[in-house]
Please model this.
Amino acid sequence: MANFDKINKDIAWCPGCGNFSILKVLKESMQELNLDPRNVVLVSGIGQAAKIPQYLETHYFNGLHGRAIPAATGIKLANSGLKVIVVSGDGDIYGEGGNHFIHAIRRNPDITVIVSNNMVYGLTKGQVSPTSDYGFVSKSRSKQYQGEFNPISTAISLDASFVSRGFVLNQIHLKAVMKEAISHKGFSLLDVYSPCVTFDTKHTYDWFKENTYELDSSYNAIDKVRAFEKSLEKEKLPIGVFYKNDRAIFEESEVNMEKTQQAFYMHNQDRREVLGNLIESFK
Model:
């Protein structure tokens, strides 16, 4: 079994942070899927959850705040043989990166996006995030005056290839969903409820235990209308695989197929000729 453990790592999270569970489950998921660390690239932006790739022994790209998804898309296009996984937080993906999130779903690159969703900004001292619920007051004294962003319903409405949600305390269920998300071909979203023990005293582990439930085995994840209805439930929040389909992926689209059949670094291309042609085109 592949070893993703990084030795002598200093983890910079508060004791009890939900990110510890995501780190553990991600490592175990990649090991159980027999992924080769040399063929995995973890991509993140900025935030506490964005530190997760730093604590695993594999390739890692850390981008600007909100820019993890376009970087991941570019990496996958450059070498489609890599397993590309984005790991970041709700502020980074849905806030600063919200526009990239929407249009990546439309393109459908074969990447997995795992979002540590603690409904608050955990790195920059507790401001409300896009997923903070209406009226929530954070420790920074900021208040959510807008309705919260629903990533699950947004992804389903855009016909995302795979849409799921988990909860860090339910690790067996989370691992099963995560392995399915990583294995799925296409844009895969896994939104993970991950309590922030420092800046959110409302959405605690107990609160999530009382307010979440697993989608049962009879649920049909191919039914888009039913999936959208489930995504809007608020009295109790469903976790599991909401929706999936087999849309064509971005790398195999007509415009990209010829380029992505071979990794970019293997292309035999005379760059002087390319540059010369470019200069000529401006004359």
Summary: The beta strands are 40-44, 59-62, 83-89, 112-117, 162-167, 188-193, 212-214, 237-244. The longest helix spans residues 19-32.
